Amino acid sequence: MAAVEALQRLVTALGKLPGVGRRSAERMAMRLAVGRRDLIDELLASLAFVQKSVTGCAKCGSPTLVDENPCRLCTSPGREDGLLCVVEEPADIATIERSGGFRGRYHALMGTLSPPKGQGPADLRVQSLVARVREEGISEVVLALNTDVEGDATAAFLEEALRGEPVKVSRLAFGLPAGSGIRYSDPVTLERAFKGRM
After folding, report:
1. What is the mean pLDDT of residues 77-101?
2. Pick among 3.40.1360.10, 1.10.1060.10, 3.40.50.150, 3.40.50.360: CATH of 78-171
């Protein structure tokens, strides 16, 4: 295999990571190949450890050690058992946890409905969500999904999937960011801020 083909395989693999476009993947591949050979060993060791020792939590989907499954968030006695926050990805769980504004349980869908990306309901963790609502006595599901077309479509789908369950389904109120002026806000944000007002 020629060097160009080997680099192309690496670029293709790196480009499959979320948020990594073709140009970024090319820069990373070049840096690894000719500039930072020591980093290759570090990456290989880290990837091997993660592959062997880390998995997705059986309940929420968040990364956890293989021998701590379900994860600490799912087994902590200090959390509200009846409150379940549904997010798109496990990274959203970490963001919400850093905010300190939520003390319930989590459920990561592992994506959103996205026909252009070929992602439909069967590709999301919807069945396990409905099962958790039934089995764990969830009283409220908070949909903490992005406010884009895919997030809105996914929220509507989940509301329909949970319609027959004895559970309240809510969405986060979206509004103006702290420190931002009204004149800099778009009409959709302003509308949602008024609708979600306290």
Report:
1. 92
2. 3.40.1360.10
